[in-house]
Amino acid sequence: MPKIKIVPSILSANQDKLQDEINEVEEHSDLLQVDVMDNKFVPNITSQAELLKKFYTKVPLDIHLMVKEPSEEYIKTFINSNKKLKINNITVHYEACSNLEKILRFIKKNNIIPCIAINPKTPLGKIKKFLDKASMVLVMTVEPGFSGQKFIEECMEKVKELRRLKPRLDIEVDGGINDKTAPIAVKAGANVLVVSSFIFKAEDKVAAIKRVLKSVK
């Protein structure tokens, strides 16, 4: 299985002290996730590409677009927003794209890793024909839109099947990940762990990251 990666999601960070919060965790992070919501695909809204101008980090970004029908022009706004930041991957939802293959191709053409996300109720079979077009798959373990929800363990069946199909694929899980649920996800086959509230609501954020890492060793 590919290397285990820890991905703090800045959705749960204190937005008034965002740079300080990022500074605290970046040395212990493989990626930093930026969640983007449009109040259409999910019932919540966040800053869009302008958020990338509000902080700096040397850690590559995991841009998770929870938006309906993200266009090439829309995706370009993130790519061009802050050239000092490195974007590792851009994730789009199967459920939100009428032409998923076209969007994945566009992301890859811009030298960014294309990633597909699927919601808890979406069967894995819906994206099987796209698996060769993506370098990472995000299996949502909560309904997208809000941080702090309870981990849906039934989603691990999709992770197990995906790992059987693609032994070397990066499989990401997002939602309710902590030192208790991370081992369940890794045992199923996930290797990219998005951790949100468990890190940013902790008094000692680095200790929280280390607890997650220790739990999966």
Strand and helix map with partners:
Elements: E1 5-8, H1 18-25, E2 32-37, E3 61-66, H2 72-79, E4 87-93, H3 100-109, E5 113-118, E6 136-140, H4 156-165, E7 170-174, H5 182-188, E8 192-195, H6 197-200, H7 205-215
Parallel strand pairs: 1-8, 2-3, 3-4, 4-5, 5-6, 6-7, 7-8
Tell me the CATH superfamily: Aldolase class I
Number of helices: 7
Going by CATH, the architecture would be Alpha-Beta Barrel
User: What is the approximate shape?
Assistant: globular
- List the domain count as a whole number: 1
What's the count of strands? Answer: 8
Radius of gyration: 16 Å
Highest-level CATH class? Alpha Beta
What's the mean pLDDT score?
Answer: 96
* CATH topology label: TIM Barrel
Biggest sheet, strands in spatial order? 1-8-7-6-5-4-3-2
**Helix/strand structural class:** alpha/beta
**How many angstroms separate the termini?**
13 Å
Provide the β-strand percentage band.
Answer: 15-25%
Report on the structure:
By secondary structure, this protein is an alpha/beta fold. The chain has a single domain (5-215), classed as Alpha-Beta Barrel (TIM Barrel), CATH 3.20.20.70. Helices cover 27% and strands 20% of the residues. It contains seven helices and eight strands; from the N terminus they run βαββαβαββαβαβαα. The chain has helices at residues 18-25, 72-79, 100-109, 156-165, 182-188, 197-200, 205-215; strands spanning 5-8, 32-37, 61-66, 87-93, 113-118, 136-140, 170-174, 192-195. β3, α2 and β4 (87-93) form a beta-alpha-beta unit. The longest helix is centred in the last third of the chain and has 11 residues, at 205-215. The two termini are 13 Å apart.
